[in-house]
Specification:
Shape: elongated
Strand order of the largest sheet: 8-7-11-10-9-15-14-12-13
Strand content: 25-35%
Order of helices and strands: HEEHEHEEEEEEEEHEEHEEH
Structural class: alpha+beta
């Protein structure tokens, strides 16, 4: 967390939290959601200012409820997540890289949804792979040690047998598990659309 943010928190510790104004889309873009976007359920405008994006990245965290937020000075700006708290991309030099710019490192687990969305997990980080990189990642999938084709993948997604694995950069393989899209937040302990706590 930036020092200026820590100082603002110490000076104004009780600023009300903000909900609905910032989002993270499935491609790892931060989006500003004004009143119109919120009212119409739109994703909002993509943030492109490098300094602002860097500030958000450095001050991105989660609370005890599993709600992700950006600490903007003394105020928590809670995010609406389209998918997972992190989005990964493939990188020729680093393997998988998070939307925050950090390398994910070697995934410890992988999951595939009924819609073909690939999720990667390392420690507490769960990241959905950017859809533009899924086709490339699918070439790393094997079933029972053999290359995966579209027909075999569809059969597996529909409950077919076989051990699905994702080849890793170190020459090993990670087991791939099925996960339902609508069950992802509960399974991995986060909330996609945080809401204020009800008054006591």
């Amino acid at each position: 967390m930036d020092d200026i943010v820590k100082q603002a928190l110490a000076k104004w510790p009780n600023v009300p939290h903000c909900y609905g104004w910032l989002g993270l889309d499935a491609r790892g873009n931060w989006r500003m959601r004004d009143e119109r976007a919120q009212h119409l359920g739109l994703p909002g405008d993509k943030l492109s200012n490098a300094a602002l994006v860097g500030f958000i990245v450095r001050n991105y965290a989660s609370d005890e409820r599993g709600c992700w937020y950006f600490q903007n000075g003394p105020q928590r700006v809670y995010l609406n997540l389209e998918t997972t708290p992190f989005v990964a991309r493939t990188d020729p030099a680093q393997g998988f890289v998070l939307h925050t710019g950090e390398a994910l490192g070697q995934p410890e687990a992988a999951y595939l949804t009924e819609a073909g969305e690939l999720l990667l997990q390392r420690g507490a980080v769960i990241a959905q792979l950017d859809d533009r990189d899924v086709a490339q990642a699918m070439t790393l999938l094997e079933i029972d040690g053999r290359a995966m084709d579209d027909e075999a993948l569809m059969a597996w997604l529909e409950g077919g047998k076989g051990a699905l694995t994702l080849r890793s950069g170190d020459g090993g393989a990670i087991g791939v598990q099925r996960v339902r899209s609508d069950g992802i937040p509960a399974q991995f302990g986060f909330i996609r659309q945080p809401q204020p706590d009800a008054p006591a």
